[in-house]
Amino acid sequence: MWNAETRIGVIYGGFSLEREVSLRSGKNIYDALLRLGYQATLYDPVEGLDFLNHIDLAFLGLHGEFGEDGHIQHLLESSQVAYTGCDAKASAICMNKVCTKFILEKHGIPTAKSATFFSSLQVLPSSFDYPVVVKPINQGSSLGVFILKNEAELQEKTQFLHQTYGAFMMEVFIPGQEVTVSVVEMPEPQVFPILELRSKKEFYDYEAKYTAGLTEFILPAGLSQDMTQKTKALALQTFNVLGGRGYARIDMRIHPEKGPMVLEMNTLPGMTDLSDLPAQAKAYGLSFDDLIQTILTHTKPPYAF
């Protein structure tokens, strides 16, 4: 379907707080496409949207706002340009943690109890106990995520979140192993080996994600065969329930008694040298170039979703 004559635009950079990571992801995608013999050009939306008139397919390397929230997807659909990854609807849902949580709970997918707040807090709500997790509603890469253990941290961090992002979410902290599971359509959704993340920091935050040496990758994860099967099945169910398309990554924690519990689904996983999806693809048997080719091969033409 796509060949050496296809005008592929690698869309990267953008306006979000994840811009630097996006630049790294996009450059890796671009280099792989060139190695594979495709005609590719790098485009940064910060410099304008004229590229919409000059490409046949957009390989999305954008993260955060405008890239993962459905905006660029809507623009591409309006311009009848094909694009990689989840569609506009799924992107908008998954970028909004409140919407994601609502759908997960509606379909009986295990996830942490949560509440949304629109102002800073002085005392912990009676329905929660420490530790709790607080996070922005519309951010990725663990930006603005904190694990709180006392009232002083609660007041400081919720004030920061309110001032920086407006609304924020509070969740019950889920103890246990931190894992992530990638699903890639080939063309049927295939679940890659589970990656366990052992961060040298308190949890797998932004710094741990993108700084070499701060996170140990256990691949495949240290799970029993039964727990591995349950976790993979839950990842596939989550992918389908949230409207996944092309590829996505589902983040979970493995509770010691309750088993796997879903945190969120990332609709445009990172493609940096330290990112999770390329590592999982390698464990599955795909090189980075193979992964890019697989995503490209199964990207459908415009309006054929």
Quickly give the structural class.
alpha+beta
Taken as a percent bin, the fraction of beta residues is 15-25%
Classify the fold: give the CATH topology of the largest domain: D-amino Acid Aminotransferase, Chain A, domain 1
Strand runs, count = 14
Quick one: CATH class of the largest domain?
A: Alpha Beta
Query: Secondary-structure element sequence?
Result: EHEEHEHHEEEHEEEEHEHEEHH
End-to-end CA span: 15 Å
- Count of spatially separate domains: 3
Global mean pLDDT: 92
Number of helices: 9
Q: Supply Rg.
A: 19 Å
CATH superfamily of the largest domain: ATP-grasp fold, B domain
- Describe the global form: globular
Uncertain regions spanning at least 5 consecutive residues: none
Main sheet makeup: 6 strands, antiparallel
CATH architecture of the largest domain: 2-Layer Sandwich
Share of helix, binned:
25-40%
